Amino acid sequence: MTADQALATRTIGDAGPRVAFVHGLFGQGRNWTTVARRLADPADGSGHRVTLVDLPNHGHSPWTDRVDYVDMAEQLAELLAGFGEPVTLVGHSMGGKVSMQLALRHPELLRALVVVDISPSVYPETGGRTDDPDEEASPFAAFITAMRAIDLTGLATREDADAALRAAVPSDMVRAFLLQSLVRDGTTGWRWRLNLPLLARDLGELRGFPEPPPGAVFEGPVLWISGADSTYVLDEDRPRMEELFPRVRLVRVKNAGHWVHSEAPEVFTEAVRRFLAQVEG
User: Fold this and answer.
1) Would residue 64 count as lying in a domain?
2) Residue 134 predicted with pLDDT over 50
3) Whether residues 86 and 66 fall in one domain
4) What is the Cβ-side half-sphere exposure of residue 188, based on CA atoms within 13 angstroms?
5) Which pLDDT band, with edges at 50, 70 and 90, does 124 fall under?
6) Residue 132 is assigned to a structural domain of this protein
7) Which residue in 35, 36, 77, 176 is a FRET match for 9, CA 20 to 30 A apart?
8) Into how many domains does the chain fold?
9) How far does CA 255 lie from the centroid of its chain?
């Protein structure tokens, strides 16, 4: 990987076992800053070097000409290989799928794996996963449409952007999350740190999970964290997860949905901290 293709990262903590966090769709490494600071604290998280990764087409990482899970896993593997030590990899949603692909293709790079509210399954691009009429339909296509519809040339303030997104993104938390990727372009304009045209075109690719190499299994410890109110992890997902990751342990977090680490940050961080203590002990 050349320098202009390298993934952008930020590391918190100067010593201790290495942990890397990978965000989901529309995210960036900075989304994990609060969790990272706690895990890096020797008095609280037992001291870790925590690397926060921006995936391609997000944050400060390069834009590409396609969205592909195997491509992203290979880029991430090259980054982790440069650490020269086993890593505990934590991935949410899209980042969880990237992390699972890496674990199945380069298990030697990992000490352990944490998969957050996603499974090695195919998800609907629109609609829901259950027959429950109250289940929220997949909102990501609508999010992209709403973000692309904002006239950045005429945008005055971030508050105006927030107002423009409100109809398509009613959750204050999710709007704030999306708007972290809206930044000033110079002194007068605005730009998205998201490659929205590409994500719109290839959104269908993100719903899938590429077939792993024949016979691939990750034998290391795996913590599978799900929001109890989320439909991204269903009972029907467990057989495939257990087939590919035989040492997996599922933890469901009460009163949390898909963004479990934002909706229940204390519970999430403590679950990860305890898991790290087990696998590093």
Assistant:
1) yes
2) no
3) yes
4) 2
5) confident
6) no
7) 176
8) 2
9) 20
- Are 201 and 141 within 8 A, CB to CB? no
Distances from the Cα of 90 to the Cα of 94, 143, 161, 168, 257, angstroms: 11, 24, 31, 29, 17
Contacts of 154 (CB under 8 A, 6+ apart): none
Query: Hey, what are 81's tokens?
Result: 């290989």
Q: How distant is the alpha carbon of residue 106 from its chain centre?
A: 19
Segment 2-40, tens digit of pLDDT: 556 799 999 999 999 999 999 999 999 999 999 999 999
Phi, psi of 79 (to 5 degrees): -65, -50
Query: Domain containing 151: what range?
Result: 140-203
**265 lies in some domain:** yes
pLDDT tens, residue by residue, 86-118: 999 999 999 999 999 999 999 999 999 999 999
Higher pLDDT, 243 or 128: 243
Instruction: For residues 269 and 281, give the distance between their C-alpha atoms in angstroms, rounded to a whole number.
Output: 18
Query: What is the CATH number for 24?
Result: 3.40.50.1820
